C-alpha cells in the first residue's frame, strides 16, 4: 500500500510540474495568444507510454470485449495490435493484444508505424505554421514565387503548371501528381536503375527528378492520392521553419501537447526504436527486392520500401494512446487544449464532396472523421464519431486485404461500440494521477 501511495504522489507531482512548465512557457508552441491561455489551466499528460499498462483497462464491465478483438486478430492472421478508445477527450481504454515481438506481449505503450496516418500529423504542422503567420495554405509551392523556390528546383521545372500548385492542393491530393508510371515514394529501385544511381536518392534528388516531369492534370481541378505531395509538404515545413521536419514536429506540435514518443521509423529491425514493435507480413508473402537496389531479397516490411524516406507522408511511429491525445488536441473540444484554433479545426474538417479530400483526414462527411494507413507490416485506422467517441487501431501485421482491411476494422469498431460504449469506466487515463483511483473490478454501469 505504501509503495502504491508513493507512486501515486510521484505521478501527481510530475503532472503538476508539467502544468507549471507549460504555463510558464505560455504554450508558445501552440501559436495561441496570451489572453487565450489565461483560462482554467489544464493538466498535461505525462509519458503515457511509460505509465499505461494493459491491466489498467481490465474491468468486469467489459466482459467479452477482449475475446471479440482477439478473434478479429486471429481471423486476419494479425500477430499484435493496439487499441485505444477516447470519448469527449477522455481516454477510456488503452490496451495491446497479441505479440509486440517474439515472446513479448503488446502493451498500450508500444509504438507502431502508422503509415499514411502520418499525413494527419503533417497537416497539423502546416496549420500551426499558418497560425504563426509563416505561410498560408493558399501559398504557391513551386516557382520563383513559391516556397520551394531553390534555384535547382526552378531550373528543373519545364511544365509551368507547377507554378499553380498551392499548399492546399498538396493537402487535398490535388497537386497534379499521379501514381501512373509508379509512385516515386515506392519506386526507389526503379529510379536508381533508370538514373544509374548507386546511392538511394535523397528527398532533394526526388524533388528535382519529379519537377522535370509534366504534371498529369491541372492542379486544383482533380484529385489523385499522392504520397509525393505529402513529402513536398514535409519539405515545405522544413523550408519555412528552418529546421528538419521531425524536429519541428516534435518540438512545436507533439511534445507541447504531451506526445513525447512520436518518432520517424527506421527501415530495418535493427533500427527498431526502444519501445517499437516487430512487424510481420502474411506467412505466404513472397520475399521482396531490397529497396536500395542491392539485389538481396528481404521480408517486405524490413527493407522492401524506404519507410524513413516517406517522412511526413508515412514514416511516423507512435502508440495509440498518444495518437488519441493528438486527435484530442485538434478536435475543437474544450476538455484537452487544442494545438490549433477552432478556425483551423473547422478548416481541416470541412467537408465539400466525395472528390475533395479533407485536410490531413481522408474524409469528414457528416461528422465522421476517418484517417487510414497501410503498408507492409502495418494497418492503422482512426475513426472519430459525431458523438465525440474516437477509436484508434494499429496492427503490426499486414494482410492480403491491404488498404481494404480498414473497412473491416471499422466494422469491428461498430460492433464493439454497439455493445460496450455505455459500459466504459468513467475515467480519463490521459492524466496519470487519476489512474490509481479506478477499481478495475467496480461495475460502473448496470
Give the distance, in angstroms, between the N- and C-terminal Cα atoms: 30 Å
Order of helices and strands: HHHEEEEHHHHHHHEEEEHHEEEHH
| Widest sheet: strand ordering | 3-2-1-11-10-9
Number of strands: 11
- Helical/strand content category: alpha+beta
Principal-axis shape equals globular
Tell me the major beta sheet.
6 strands, antiparallel
Number of helices: 14
Q: Uncertain spans, ≥5 residues at pLDDT below 50?
A: 1-41, 436-446
| % residues in beta strands | 5-15%
User: What level of helicity do the residues show?
Assistant: 25-40%
Whole-number mean pLDDT: 89
- Compute the gyration radius: what is it? 22 Å
Which short descriptors sum up this protein?
single chain, 446 residues, alpha+beta, six-stranded antiparallel β-sheet, three-stranded antiparallel β-sheet, 14 helices, 12% strand, globular, disordered N terminus
Task: Map the helices and strands.
Layout (H helix, E strand, L loop, with lengths): L1 H24 L22 H4 L13 H12 L3 E8 L2 E12 L2 E2 L6 E2 L4 H14 L19 H6 L10 H5 L16 H8 L7 H9 L15 H15 L3 H10 L8 E2 L23 E2 L7 E2 L17 E3 L1 H9 L13 H8 L19 E7 L2 E7 L4 E7 L9 H16 L11 H4 L11
Antiparallel strand pairs: 1-2, 1-11, 2-3, 4-8, 5-8, 6-7, 9-10, 10-11
Helix pairs in contact: 4-9, 4-10
Characterization of the model:
- The protein is 32% helix and 12% strand.
- It contains 14 helices and 11 strands.
- The strands form 3 sheets. A 6-stranded antiparallel β-sheet has the order 3-2-1-11-10-9, sandwiched between helices.
Amino acid at each position: 500500500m505504501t509503495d502504491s501511495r508513493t507512486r501515486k504522489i510521484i505521478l501527481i507531482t510530475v503532472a503538476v510540474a508539467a502544468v507549471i512548465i507549460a504555463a510558464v512557457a505560455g504554450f508558445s508552441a501552440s501559436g495561441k495568444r496570451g489572453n487565450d491561455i489565461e483560462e482554467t489551466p489544464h493538466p498535461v499528460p505525462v509519458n503515457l507510454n511509460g505509465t499505461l499498462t494493459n491491466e489498467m483497462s481490465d474491468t468486469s464491465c467489459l466482459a467479452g470485449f477482449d475475446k471479440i478483438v482477439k478473434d478479429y486478430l486471429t481471423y486476419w492472421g494479425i500477430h499484435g495490435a493496439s487499441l485505444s478508445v477516447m470519448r469527449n477527450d477522455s481516454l477510456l481504454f488503452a490496451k495491446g493484444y497479441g505479440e509486440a515481438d517474439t515472446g513479448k506481449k503488446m502493451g498500450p505503450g508500444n509504438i507502431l508505424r502508422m503509415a499514411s496516418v502520418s499525413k494527419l500529423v503533417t497537416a497539423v504542422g502546416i496549420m500551426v505554421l499558418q497560425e504563426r503567420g509563416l505561410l498560408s495554405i493558399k501559398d504557391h509551392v513551386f516557382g520563383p514565387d513559391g516556397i520551394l523556390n531553390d534555384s535547382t528546383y526552378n531550373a528543373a521545372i519545364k511544365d509551368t503548371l507547377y507554378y499553380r500548385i498551392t499548399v492546399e492542393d498538396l493537402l487535398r491530393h490535388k497537386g497534379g501528381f499521379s501514381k501512373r508510371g509508379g509512385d516515386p515514394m515506392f519506386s526507389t529501385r526503379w529510379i536508381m536503375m533508370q538514373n544509374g544511381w548507386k546511392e538511394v536518392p535523397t528527398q532533394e534528388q526526388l524533388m528535382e527528378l519529379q519537377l522535370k516531369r509534366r504534371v498529369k492534370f491541372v492542379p486544383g481541378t482533380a484529385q489523385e492520392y499522392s504520397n509525393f505531395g505529402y513529402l513536398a509538404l514535409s519539405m515545405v515545413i522544413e523550408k519555412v521553419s528552418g529546421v528538419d521536419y521531425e524536429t519541428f514536429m516534435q518540438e512545436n506540435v507533439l511534445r507541447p501537447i504531451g506526445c513525447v514518443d512520436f518518432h520517424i521509423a527506421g527501415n530495418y529491425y535493427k533500427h527498431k526504436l526502444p519501445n517499437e514493435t516487430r512487424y510481420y507480413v502474411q506467412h505466404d508473402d513472397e520475399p521482396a527486392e531490397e529497396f536500395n537496389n542491392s539485389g538481396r531479397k528481404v521480408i517486405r516490411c524490413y527493407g522492401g520500401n524506404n519507410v524513413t524516406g516517406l517522412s511526413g507522408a508515412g514514416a511516423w511511429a507512435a502508440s495509440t494512446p498518444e495518437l488519441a491525445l493528438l486527435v484530442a488536441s485538434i478536435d475543437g473540444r474544450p476538455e484537452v487544449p487544442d494545438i490549433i484554433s477552432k478556425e483551423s479545426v473547422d478548416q481541416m474538417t470541412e467537408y465539400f464532396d466525395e472528390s475533395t479530400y479533407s485536410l490531413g483526414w481522408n474524409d469528414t462527411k457528416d461528422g465522421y472523421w476517418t484517417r487510414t494507413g497501410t503498408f507492409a507490416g502495418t494497418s492503422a485506422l482512426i475513426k472519430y464519431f459525431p458523438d465525440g467517441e474516437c477509436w484508434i487501431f494499429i496492427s503490426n501485421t499486414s494482410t492480403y486485404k491491404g488498404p481494404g482491411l480498414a473497412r473491416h476494422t471499422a466494422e469491428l469498431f461498430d460492433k464493439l461500440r454497439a455493445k460496450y460504449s455505455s459500459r466504459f469506466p468513467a475515467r480519463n487515463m490521459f492524466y496519470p494521477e487519476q489512474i490509481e483511483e479506478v477499481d478495475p473490478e467496480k461495475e460502473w454501469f448496470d
